[in-house]
Structure formats: C-alpha cells, structure tokens
Specification:
The chain is an all-beta fold. The strands form two sheets. Strands 2, 4, 5, 6, 9, 10 and 11 form a seven-stranded mixed beta sheet that branches. It starts with a strand and ends with a strand. It contains no helices and eleven strands.
C-alpha cells in the first residue's frame, strides 16, 4: 500500500520560497498512470489543488498559482517537491501531497502545517 509523507519547514518568512518534499513508499512515482499532486487547505477554507507531476514527469499547475509554483521530482529517491515563491501570510495552510488517478485522489499524506509570518 502506497504511503506519502510531507516534510519541510513549518515557518516561512514573507517573500521567501516555501519548499516541501513528499516522500513516497510502497509504490514508484514513475508508475503508469499516477499523478502526484500538492493540495492545500488554508484555515477556515476548503481544499485547493495547486498542481501535479505525472508519472511521465509532465507538470500541471493551477492557473491561479502557476506563476509562483514549481513541482519537480527525484526518481532516485522516489520524492517530489513543491516550491512556492514570494509567499505571503495568505499562503498559510496545511499542505498535503496526494496520489491521483484521473480525478480520484486515493492516497494522501497526513499533511504539514506551514505558517507564513515574520
């Protein structure tokens, strides 16, 4: 059974770049036809899909975040990474990584709280 685990700093200063890593076990991130996503939930708000990297290495981003978001992977470590630049307090959220097939997000990490504050 696949497991996902987010890691990264819990506190980021405004204007800096937020960087999170998702480590995957029990399955390869290059296996057809999975998409590996980043999703966040700000306090008191709903889930927001940020972007994904496909089994092929292709990347997809939310239009509202595309200019600040980059997702990459390290297949040797079976990890994928989120970078979000120029963060503001509005980027404070619980950040999740997840595996999807189509629109079915079947496996999730436990989530990690990131606070943007000086």
């Amino acid at each position: 059974q696949v497991q996902l685990q987010e890691s990264g700093p819990g506190l980021v200063k405004p204007s800096q770049t937020l960087s999170l890593t998702c480590t995957v076990s029990g399955g390869s991130i290059t296996t057809n036809y999975y998409y590996w996503s980043w999703i966040r939930q700000p306090p008191g708000k709903g889930l927001e899909w940020m972007g994904a990297i496909a089994y092929s290495g292709s990347t997809y981003y939310s239009p509202s975040l595309k200019s600040r978001t980059s997702i990459s992977r390290d297949t040797s470590k079976n990890q994928f990474t989120l970078q979000l630049s120029s963060v503001t307090p509005e980027d404070t959220a619980v950040y999740y990584c997840a595996r999807a097939t189509g629109l079915n997000f079947g496996s999730w990490g436990q989530g990690t709280q990131v606070t943007v504050s000086s």
